[in-house]
């Protein structure tokens, strides 16, 4: 009696979450006659890097250009009595699963590869997957059970710069969190950089002026989860060091940084902030309350 042929397949997939939705690919009738959705991805070509493979597969199955994480989780499934192409085989599937994301404003997903293993691609509510309302492969369930948002902690330095009854603020662009709101000038502290030096650099980059940094006024932190401007779903913790600062009276601040996280610079009356006329980040309200 002939032994069952052994088949081993190494494939790469990605969990791509956007707010409360997940990107999935529907297996074509060539694979199963039943409705079944799975993670976008597929088999590695001989000699292909897994990260290159999953990015290629995502594009073929969804038409989207994705970015994936540097690290991955590995899952193994041994199916000794699987059916492949009308015959029984002893199958072993090794699945490498990355976290992935696509840029905001990306088009709706569509299948690019013709006559492949995918017949449809779409965003689906995570709730429908977790509740079992949507038929998904065991890999989706297994990967989601282990999935955690990317954790990012950011230390930043900001300046409270006053001119009479006005404060210097910068407006957050669509490339930053809280877009459209006005915030204190400042930004992230680089590794090994003094917070005061970071603030001087950030005010120069954002407002085109040289600042003189005073004492630390207060701390402000916020912790939330959501889709970052770059498209990655993050568990974000921001720690803001807020210093008092001065800028030369004879130089008018102006927008210097283009295509960054700031799209406007202005002196804003405190009265407009307190009345709610000007939408501001919570850190602005906080520092005005404690000073």
UniProtKB/TrEMBL annotation:
Annotated PROSITE patterns: NUDIX, NUDIX_BOX
Coiled-coil positions: none
Ranges of residues in domain Nudix hydrolase: 6-148, 151-291
Cofactors required: Mg(2+)
GO molecular function: hydrolase activity
Matches recorded under InterPro entries: Nudix_hydrolase, NUDIX_hydrolase-like_dom_sf, NUDIX_hydrolase_CS, NUDIX_hydrolase_dom
Record key words, sorted: Hydrolase
Gene3D superfamilies in the cross-refs: Nucleoside Triphosphate Pyrophosphohydrolase
Family: Belongs to the Nudix hydrolase family.
Name of protein: NUDIX domain-containing protein
